[in-house]
């Protein structure tokens, strides 16, 4: 696997800063960084995201990454992430960054 691109490094750095019990959507991350889009962030996470708290990155509707639902839910429960059923409650769990 190749080294992360500069964009990927920025995505991974932001994901590392999401506090326990909070989440950001793929689109939130792209918007916060002012570049890319949800798909580009998803590609970064699927390629290089294993070393960061990947479970804190969700779809806009609060659903976990595909194929990782059980592990993600376990992490969310462990961290006290606000939930609505089997998804993150985006109204209460969404992190808006440190507002630079």
Automatic annotation (TrEMBL):
Domain Methylated-DNA-[protein]-cysteine S-methyltransferase DNA binding: from-to ranges: 6-66
CDD domains, A to Z: ATase
GO biological process, one term: DNA repair
GO MF annotation list: catalytic activity
DNA damage as UniProt keyword: yes
One Pfam family named in its UniProt record: DNA_binding_1
Entry keywords, A to Z: DNA damage
Protein name: Methylated-DNA-[protein]-cysteine S-methyltransferase DNA binding domain-containing protein
Record organism: Sphaerisporangium rufum
């Amino acid at each position: 696997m190749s080294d992360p691109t500069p964009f990927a490094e920025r995505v991974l750095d932001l994901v590392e800063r999401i506090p326990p019990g909070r989440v950001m959507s793929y689109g939130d991350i792209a918007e916060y960084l002012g570049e890319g889009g949800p798909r580009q962030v998803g590609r970064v996470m699927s390629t290089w995201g294993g070393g960061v708290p990947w479970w804190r990155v969700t779809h806009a509707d609060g659903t976990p990454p595909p194929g990782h639902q059980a592990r993600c839910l376990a992490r969310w429960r462990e961290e006290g992430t606000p939930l609505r059923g089997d998804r993150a409650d985006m109204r209460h769990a969404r992190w808006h960054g440190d507002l630079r």
